[in-house]
Amino acid sequence: MAEIVSFRKDAAGAEEGGLLTRSLRDGVLRLVLNNPPANVLSIALLEALLEELETAGAEPDVRVVVIASTGNVFSAGHDLKELTARRADEDQGAGFFEKTFRLAADLMLKITHLPKPVIAEIDGLATAAGCQLVASCDLAICTDSSTFCTPGVNIGLFCSTPMVAVSRAAHRKQAMEMLLTGETIDASTAKDFGLVNRIVPKQYLAQVVSKYAAVIASKSPLTLKIGKEAFNRQLELPVEAAYDYTARVMVENMLTEDAQEGIGAFLGKRKPEWKG
After folding, report:
1. Pick from 120, 62, 112, 58: which is nearest to 231 by CA?
2. CB of 147 closer than 8 Å to CB of 89
3. Is the pLDDT of residue 9 over 90?
4. Which of 88, 153, 154, 270 lies 20 to 30 A from 182 at CA?
């Protein structure tokens, strides 16, 4: 499939550059944050990401989504200047703050519930809601110079919403360490904590992410949908209930055409042809 590239308008309506660019090739949709220098998650960028993911969820040609960024900062999180400017509102900004944090939560939930795997490609700093975005993705691959933090405690604004994703990706005590100290951790520590899957040299980042995406995109899209939903749901259940639930999922999965095709292809030593 030929690569399809398009641009999203920024808040001023400008096409050039755009806050978010997209390209689709061989089933892999790349969404690139393009809001330099810090790729802050402004209202406009949050809305653009939500729109793209909503479309991707229903688009058969999209098998895997990659979220990347331009520049030296993956994302510095919420736009503090945008938020601070609304303190002059009649409600001291409460309505705008609620809208911002609700949109961010909707984005993270959209990633979690998207019926397709989402990979974060990180090169640079991922802080606050930017770290939350990384933690929300199904997989995360970063360069060896990438760094991560949840520094809200340093400015009197605890990273409570980023905490939801970070505490579900990292181990409990490591997540609390990040949240309570606000200190920046390097890529190696982030891998030890459980925030990222792989660390690669900068020059190989796109290549490694593309390889992961291609491998995943080659699988049955229906099976990926079933598996991602079951993975997230069983984590919320007690172990006995989790086994009861996943046993039912296995039966339902076994009855699908793709399972029949996949098992038949394996036994017949041939490549499967997925129906989806």
Report:
1. 112
2. no
3. no
4. 88
Q: Calculate the average pLDDT of the chain.
A: 93
What architecture is domain 221-267?
A: Orthogonal Bundle (1.10)
Reported as type and span, the H/E element at residue 119 is: strand 118-122
The amino acid at 229 = E
The CA–CA distances, whole Å, from 10 to 21, 33, 44, 183 equal 11, 11, 7, 32
Structural domain boundaries in the chain: 4-217, 221-267
Residue 18: pLDDT band with limits 50, 70, 90: confident
Q: Which of 54, 61, 45, 59 is nearest to 8 (CA)?
A: 45
Residue 98's Cβ-count burial label (10 Å; 0-12, 13-18, 19+) is exposed
Residue type present at position 263 = I
Select from 159, 148, 140 the least CA-distant residue to 124: 148
And the tokens for 3?
């690569």
CATH of region 4-217, choose from 3.30.1130.10, 3.40.50.2000, 3.90.226.10, 2.60.40.420? 3.90.226.10
Residue 11, pLDDT score = 40
Query: What's the rounded mean pLDDT across residues 86-98?
Result: 96
- Whose tokens are 């399972």? That residue is 259
Task: Give how far Cα 47 sits from Cα of 10, 20, 102, 134, 175, Å.
Answer: 11, 10, 11, 17, 28
Residue that the structure tokens 């938020």 belong to:
83
CA 10 to centroid of chain Cα atoms: 21
What's the pTM?
0.92
Q: Residue 55: what are its φ and ψ, rounded to 5°?
A: -65, -45
pLDDT in tens, 167-218: 999 999 999 999 999 999 999 999 999 999 999 999 999 999 999 999 999 9
